[in-house]
## 1
Amino acid sequence: MARYLVLITGVNRGIDRGLLEHYLAWPNHMVIAAVSDPSHATTKELLTLPAANSTSLVVMKLDPTVTTEDIQQHISGNVYEFVLLFHAFIPLLKMAKYPKWATVGSSSALLTAIHTEELWLTALPVDLGWVQTDLGQRGAYAFGLKKAAISLDESVCGIINIIDVANREIHSGELWV
């Protein structure tokens, strides 16, 4: 088994794609790419990305079943699925020597709860910054700017650097920018 296990959702583009490519370049990693449509062309393209020695990519279909109205679907996608995903990976996290659960984006309230309840785990939200992705560039243009503040590579490297050094005493339960 690989020494490091990394789960990334939303890997078909943007910051998550950048994170995927960086982690694939490191040896001894199992990178799980959680996607909604494994048959999509951008998902199939992921399987052609180069990987370092002893590093593998596993594409996993996320298949949430929600049978409520639109607002409930939004809550499910942004709250329930996060909690379900976390609980699904607890057994793997507990096998790690230094277990870490980091999310990039807006899950800080949920991570504070996880930090408080799971004393064995380093749990931290990371702000990716205003990145030169499709979405970031649209925001820049809307404000009359040529580009967003930081490159995709700068953001990915910054996120990875924070996660790499994170420990429970200093980083867990805190938002890192």
Note: The mean pLDDT is 81.
## 2
Amino acid sequence: HPLSPSLSPPPQDQFDTIERHTQWGLDLVDKYVKFVKERTEIEQAYAKQLRNLVKKHIPKRNTREDPESKFCQYQAFLQVVKELNDFAGQREVVAENLMTRVCVELAKYTQELKQERKSNLQEGRRAQQQLENSFKQLENVSPRFNFPSIAPSSASPSVDPKP
């Protein structure tokens, strides 16, 4: 006998959907970490190029000895070069912080999430398997416990007219 409607297995869990969704989330974090690493490399390269530009334009001799150093336009130019050097330093700090505070921390967190996800998925698969086994056992034993249907009886018990 098939299971009665009240004993039928529940609709399929959304286990596969959850598995895909969590994998998508982990893939997105991995993609973001890759993006930040690439940005870090760009920031580092940019800072290096800025430093090289500064080196080219900083006077090699002492500014007091340079006759052009007396002019305010030259002083302004040197100030711009020094500011650019400071800006290069800021780019280096940005790159370092991106690597240490974002990439490294996200990589650690992602590893923890992957381990937790793996554990939860294994536990979910075990629970699904136990559920399937329970329904199979229920199907196997239910014929033994099926009782014949009882017809509804009349409101008053029947009395035998003979004493």
Note: The chain has a mean pLDDT of 82.
